[in-house]
Specification:
With 137 residues, the protein is an alpha+beta fold. It is 47% helix and 23% strand. Helix 1 packs across helix 2.
Length: 137
């Protein structure tokens, strides 16, 4: 079975076993989608490609969200593991801080963007000025 199907099955099980966490998951997916969309629309000249996928780690048996933003020279990627205990692990390859809510996870994602350097310049300028930086900034 494909990893995206395994992801969907695991998340669908949350709908009945832990509806409150399922709602947090949905809020997280929406928040990440909006973040990527906003960055891509405002800074397309700096972000050449983006990807946001649902997958499944067969070793840990956990759903994963994978986020990728790239330029011609740099790439930012992040995994958000979704253990079925009602938490999110934000980092790479299953390691990173463990949080309980979508807003906490989104805050960690923003922190990771900050640490990416090249991407943070674009993201920070957008947050401060609510508009795209001038070319070459």
């Amino acid at each position: 079975m494909a990893n995206s199907a395994l992801h969907a099955i695991a998340i669908d099980e949350l709908r009945t076993t832990n509806p409150a966490f399922h709602q947090e998951y949905c809020q997280l997916v929406e928040g990440i989608s909006k973040l990527i969309n906003r960055l891509a629309k405002k800074h397309g000249e700096y972000i050449a490609y983006s990807s946001f996928t649902e997958s499944y780690d067969r070793a840990s048996k956990e759903p994963i969200l994978q986020m990728v933003l790239g330029s011609h020279k740099n790439e930012f990627y992040l995994h958000i593991y979704v253990p079925l205990d009602g938490s999110f692990i934000v980092g790479r390859n299953g390691s990173g801080p463990k949080v309980q809510t979508a807003s906490q996870a989104l805050s960690l994602i923003e922190d990771e963007i900050h640490q990416a350097g090249w991407l943070w310049v674009v993201f920070h300028f957008f947050l401060v000025n609510k508009k795209a930086p001038m070319h070459g900034a």
